[in-house]
Write a structure and sequence with these properties.
By secondary structure, this protein is an alpha/beta fold. Helix content is 29%, strand content 18%.
């Protein structure tokens, strides 16, 4: 078995060393990316002037620890936000080190749940280890637009931005030759990640026609963002609404959070740019619900229309969908996901569902792991998808 090429440095030196690096760069181009630059300094310090490149182009990468039989990289790559601006996005890539099948390994693109809006909350900082659901596959995990590079704020629940990054990290993996990533891919997401995976499914056919999306798994996905459902925990709704307001504003310049939040909330929301989810939740929990907003963004324009536009279910999916929902989930309650299922079924696409009795927001996807794995394996094998839609 051929070992993975060493990731080479992009740092330039004087004289002969500089010339040698230029030669190496030319060789890399000639070999269609057979080597990948290492970050010249802090991995998360994106280039000050980001040169425009095709979505999925690798900016730099570095090796990270991996389980036996796998290699792993932390990667920065080009993606697009909701305004289609070129953005540097970070994430991780895990790949089998044994001989790949013809056409390369299938790819599982993992979409993580809410972690926060600041750079320190990027899952790739902690390795972002994810499961392959029993598949021998390349597993990629994006941090999403604005969550990773220093000095940025994450475009939380901005559907197109999330969907683009879920797709573009698959492209990035395919541009690193020794990863051997194939065209066939699936996406699995939980909570915010379910929202992201559903948007990736809606965008995939038009945005990435060179890839072959086979299945979309969304566990307790964020949906129907302006509505309240029986069983919703008010504090959860409040925290998500504030995070979404500040996050979506990154992609929608017509949204100004201070037009909606109270001065008290604005003061407590300053933690968004330094802390992660728990820090934000603790800070906002001290603001009484009736003092949270001057104008509720779920009912006040233009925030309401922007929130509705960033709900999944407004377009057909490029691949069959599997929804996973725990009956004891108080973060994304079953009624919310059931309404979403009806919206997805209206597109006459196959939508299957796994209901986990007693499953919570944290446990349902783990409990459903065997069902998810079997469903994904069938999609990759070309088995006709089941559906709960009448």
């Amino acid at each position: 078995m051929t070992s993975a090429p060493r990731i080479t440095s992009s740092t330039r030196g004087p004289g002969r060393r500089r010339a040698a690096v230029v030669v190496v760069a030319v060789v890399c181009i000639a070999l269609l990316g057979a080597c990948v630059p290492r970050p010249p300094g802090d991995f998360y310090a994106a280039p000050e002037r980001l040169p425009y490149r095709r979505a999925g182009t690798v900016i730099w990468a570095e090796a990270i620890p991996a389980a036996p039989g796998y290699g792993a990289l932390r990667v920065m790559f080009h993606s697009r936000d909701a305004e289609f601006r070129d953005r540097a996005v970070t994430g991780t890539i895990y790949y089998p080190t044994d001989r790949p099948p013809p056409g390369g390994w299938p790819v599982v693109s993992w979409a993580h749940g809410t972690s926060g809006l600041s750079s320190s909350c990027a899952p790739s900082r902690n390795g972002a280890a994810t499961g392959s659901y029993g598949l021998r596959a390349v597993v990629v995990a994006t941090d999403y637009v604005g969550l990773g590079p220093l000095g940025e704020r994450h475009a939380y629940l901005s559907g197109p931005a999330e969907g683009h990054s879920v797709i573009d990290i698959v492209r990035a993996a395919r541009r690193i030759p020794w990863v051997h990533a194939g065209r066939q891919w699936v996406t699995v997401g939980v909570s915010q990640g379910g929202h992201a995976s559903l948007f990736a499914g809606e965008l995939a056919r038009r945005y990435a026609p060179e890839l072959d999306l086979r299945g979309v798994v969304a566990a307790a996905p964020g949906s129907n963002l302006t509505e309240i459902f029986p069983g919703d925990a008010q504090v959860v709704v409040d925290v998500v609404t504030v995070l979404a307001l500040y996050g979506i504003a990154e992609d929608h310049p017509q949204i100004h959070p201070d037009d909606y939040v109270s001065p008290l909330t604005a003061e407590h929301a300053k933690v968004i740019d330094t802390g992660c989810l728990n820090d934000v939740a603790i800070s906002l929990a001290t603001v009484p619900h009736d003092q949270l907003f001057l104008h509720d963004p779920r009912t006040t324009e233009p925030a309401r229309s922007v929130a509705v536009a960033n709900e999944p279910g407004h377009a057909p999916s490029a691949a069959p969908i599997l929804l996973v929902q725990g009956t004891a989930d108080t973060t994304v309650v079953p009624a919310r996901t059931e309404k979403l299922r009806g919206q997805l079924c209206a597109w006459h696409e196959p939508v299957a569902e796994v209901i986990v009795p007693g499953g919570t927001h944290d446990t349902a996807i783990r409990t459903a792991n065997p069902q998810i794995g079997a469903w994904l394996a069938d999609r990759l094998a070309g088995v006709a998808p089941p559906t709960t839609c009448s």
